[in-house]
Amino acid sequence: MTRTLLAALAAALLAACATAPPKDYAKLVAARPRSVLVVPVMNKSVDVTAPDYFLSTVPVPLAERGYYVFPVNLVKRLLEDDGLADAGLVHGADPRKLAALFGADAVLYITIERWDAKYVVLQTNVTVEFAYTLRDGKTGDELWSAKERMVYSSGNGNSGGGLLGAIVSAAITKAAPNYMPLARQANARALAYPGPGFPAGPYRPEFGKDYVVQAAPPPAQ
After folding, report:
1. 182 near 175, Cβ under 8 Å?
2. Which phi and psi angles does 134 have, rounded to 5°?
3. 23 Cβ contact partners less than 8 Å away, ≥ 6 residues apart
4. What angle do CA 47, 107, 205 make, to 5 degrees?
5. Other CB atoms within 10 A of residue 120 CB
6. Domain residue spans of the chain
7. What global pTM score does this model have?
8. In CATH, what number does 3-196 get?
9. Band of pLDDT at residue 122, cut at 50, 70 and 90
10. Considering only CA atoms, which of 34, 35, 52, 33 is closest in space to residue 43?
11. What radius of gyration, in Å, describes the C-alpha atoms of the chain?
């Protein structure tokens, strides 16, 4: 991935964090989850490989926010053994029962809304879009939700080879689009602090302190 793409993604992340509206963290703070069960991803895209690729990008940023994350591949295998081989069945199951199977405090559901690449003239637009929902493992109530969408265009003038370079760049991106950097950036934006993401979990030193700032209502005009 080029430096220009990295810079553009970083700028988008900072902009999203700077403009994100305050969230109500009351339920999440009251629940005080320590462990999060990330269940298999629901896939609404046409790429059948998308869920497995995307699922691998979720644990690290979530753990960095200070929460214990159950190993996603082990979770998937155990759910399959329990008769929940299809992500749709998992998402339709009672979150309290899912949490009880692993002793988790909360369950994170993610749906892939888009994971595609479209070729337009001399550029390829790669798009990813995700919906996130965290539910309480004891009550099943929604504790937090977010949606993220990111787009990368191969025809942004960075090919370095004029018209021929643009054609080659677009063709390569179409043939083998790299979704993973966009997926990681989407997760980073969803869990960003300060921003739309989680207050710090129990495995971070600011646990129990940062949410006071995040959850405070905006000043009166």
Report:
1. no
2. -110, 130
3. 144, 196, 214, 215
4. 115
5. 10
6. 3-196
7. 0.78
8. 3.40.50.10610
9. low
10. 52
11. 19
